[in-house]
Design goal:
This protein is an alpha/beta fold. It has 8 helices and 15 strands. The chain has one domain: Purple Acid Phosphatase, chain A, domain 2 (4-Layer Sandwich). It starts with a strand and ends with a strand. The chain binds adenosine-5'-diphosphate. Its EC number is 3.6.1.13, 3.6.1.16, 3.6.1.53.
Length: 339
């Protein structure tokens, strides 16, 4: 179990061993969170710099632990947020992309309720955007989307609450057809900031310039306008909104190398809508947290792939009228998120 971390609020409302609050109130609903599973049927490996171990095979077992726990919750999660990079890019080299995806989806299917899948860079290492749109990872099919082929949509799991899934590789050189307008735009943007031949090599590390690498991406103007519209509607209805994306958007909630290219544009939209209470992301396997000046909790979830087999990396979030309580497991800390 993790430790409670709070910024501005006391922890006295929650216990370490359960969700029961002092007043004994049940949550309005609960949901599961998990990030960067990156499953592959491969022996353990390392990250690019060789500094961090990656437990490719074990990650499926850790997903199984999460599913079992969610299934045993007294208030069963209404849904799970899978924050992207569900299978590892190395599957592609071994012709194992479909097999790995099936293994993960079967595991989710064993216990978990509806799963909302965010798309990360490893999705695009394995599949084209059109393949993703016709795959089990297209969890937004049929809903109000940000545009054709953009994996951004919103849903309301309970009255007064809304979740917005964003597509952080809408503006990207890895997820777009070479001759498309969005590819051209993305290529111009990354080349304007990154002079390296290998665009996965950061141009530097000062002032978050290192974010202009190929394994990151950003949000098109079309998606930003759509987000603004969805949040306007939520403001009017006095809803509380959680926005999710694979890539974090607050520089103080992540290592700068994992930040979205145009994070500042997203932040200014989030900060102009009082409905937004939380932004959740994955991508930075070390995780992070920051409460910004508008009172928005920026939570970056620790990744399953870099979690030792004897630990865990998932959470259950208990939602109340005035707060969300994250109960973390293994590497993930408990957090009280007041709003
Ligand atoms: N500093 C770097 N220089 C060059 N390539 C890099 C660097 N860091 C990462 N990469 C490459 O970028 C891709 C994504 O990096 P990786 O750390 O595997 O991403 P993720 O954390 O999403 O798994 C990999 O192909 C990796 O080899």
């Amino acid at each position: 179990m993790g430790q409670f971390h709070t910024s501005a609020h006391s922890v006295k409302h929650a216990t370490q061993d359960g969700v029961q609050l002092e007043d004994g109130a049940d949550p309005l609903f609960t949901f599961g969170v998990i990030a960067d599973i990156q499953y592959a049927d491969l022996d353990d490996g390392f990250n690019f710099h060789g500094t961090r171990k990656r437990y490719y095979r074990s990650s499926l077992r850790l997903l199984c632990n999460a599913n079992r726990r969610w299934a045993a919750e007294r208030v069963r999660p209404s849904f799970v947020l899978q924050l992207g990079d569900v299978i590892d890019g190395s599957n592609r080299r071994h012709g194992a992309s479909q097999r790995a995806l099936r293994a993960v989806m079967d595991e989710f299917g064993n216990y978990a309720p509806a799963v909302h899948h965010v798309w990360g860079n490893h999705e695009f290492y394995n599949f084209s955007r059109s393949e993703l749109l016709s795959s089990a990872l297209n969890s937004g099919a049929g809903g109000d989307r940000a545009g054709d082929g953009v994996h951004a949509y919103h849903f309301s799991p309970a009255p007064g609450f809304r979740f917005v899934v964003l597509d952080a590789y809408d503006l990207s050189v890895i997820g777009r057809e070479r001759r498309s307008d969005k590819y051209e735009l993305a290529f111009k943007l990354i080349k304007a900031h990154n002079p390296n031949r290998n665009l996965n090599e950061p141009p530097g590390y000062r002032h978050w310039i290192g974010r202009f690498v190929q394994f990151n991406g950003g949000f098109s103007q079309e998606q930003l306008d759509w987000l603004h519209g969805v949040l306007l509607g939520a403001d009017e209805k006095k809803e509380k909104v959680v926005v999710v994306s694979h890539i974090p958007v607050h520089p103080l909630s992540t290592d700068g190398i994992c930040l979205a290219w145009n994070y500042d544009k997203v932040l200014s939209i989030l900060n102009s809508h009082k409905s937004v209470v939380c932004f959740m992301a994955g991508h930075d396997h070390d995780g992070g947290y920051y409460l910004d000046t508008s009172g928005i909790h920026h939570l970056t979830l620790e990744g399953v792939i870099e979690t030792p087999p004897d630990s865990d990396a998932f959470g259950t979030v208990y939602v109340y009228e005035d707060k969300m309580v994250l109960k973390g497991n293994g590497r993930i800390s408990d957090r009280l998120l007041m709003y």
